Amino acid sequence: MKLEKTRLLSAFVVLLLGCDGASGSGKPPSRTGTLIYQKVQKLYAVDMATNKTRLALNLPVSSESLTGTGLGPNGEIALAYNSSTTGPNSRITIYKADGTVERTSQHQSMIETTPRFSFDGSKLTYTISVYSSGANKRYSTQVTSRDGTGLYFYANSRSPSWLPDGRLVYKSLNDNNLYLSNADFTKPSTLIPNTLGADAPHVSPDGTRIVFSKIATANAPRHLYMLNLDGSGLRQVTTSQYGEESLAVFSPDGRELLVSSSSCVAAGSGAPVFNDSDVLHIIPASATMLDIPLGTNSGAPSEQRDESGATRCSIGVPSWR
Known about the structure:
This protein is mainly β. The protein contains no helices and 27 strands. It has strands at residues 14-16, 34-39, 42-47, 52-58, 65-71, 77-82, 90-95, 101-107, 110-111, 116-117, 123-131, 137-145, 150-155, 157-162, 168-172, 178-180, 190-191, 199-203, 209-215, 222-228, 235-236, 245-250, 256-261, 265-266, 273-274, 279-284, 315-320. The strands form 7 sheets. Strands 9, 10, 11, 12 and 13 form a 5-stranded antiparallel beta sheet that branches. Strands 1-26-23-22 form a 4-stranded mixed beta sheet, with no helix packed on it. It has a 4-stranded antiparallel beta sheet with strand order 4-3-2-27, with no helix packed on it. The termini are far apart.
């Protein structure tokens, strides 16, 4: 019988897996940086060194929809909103680390992905869309300055990710491969081999590796893969038996991956009920063919819970830097 999918309150869980790629009760590696995630109308920040969580922002209830939240190098947060009202179709608001607004920029297109800060914090990149004939969307990669001024534009592409030197990796919708831009965006981009069908790429902090999601064959689950920036060393990271992984981002030191997988399983007796939210896991970046347990019924001994004892799942794309 097909399990019913129900929209429940969103929450958050991190499943900690040992450095050897297997779950266990061993002490997790020391961590750095901040992780942010969304739960309904709130953004939470986790100090990954201490595993302490704080409320970062209260999100106002409005007719706009929150598309994504990007974390900057100095704790600033960029929130992308889309609106169905007349006038500008979207906006990006940057909040300083203390929660005050730095600036808001209005945009005439829909924002489709999380706005990502460049490593130096001076630029943002994200996917935009506009409607063409009928209900068809055309996707493009947009690069703006921090104040919202448009700088560069890649047509028919999506899912950009920064390198430390200011270049971009993005997916071309012309041939379904990943491409690498040059630093000033003035020359043609370079095809990255072995990336046909890749999606949601994220570049390691040292700029040498790319993790991405991919459907290996028709009607197969989506899993994670990794390769070097030049296309060599292709490796399948996950091969989960009952679920699939939609995206991953590197930890600040590049040793681990924060993974979003389907689906969050609500606690209770009887058959599990699935949220529309994703479960978040932390796995070793060195993992190969790792089976991530499905939802919260995996019984993993290192599974974390909130102070009420309930397991948590996440909505939106998390950020860790």
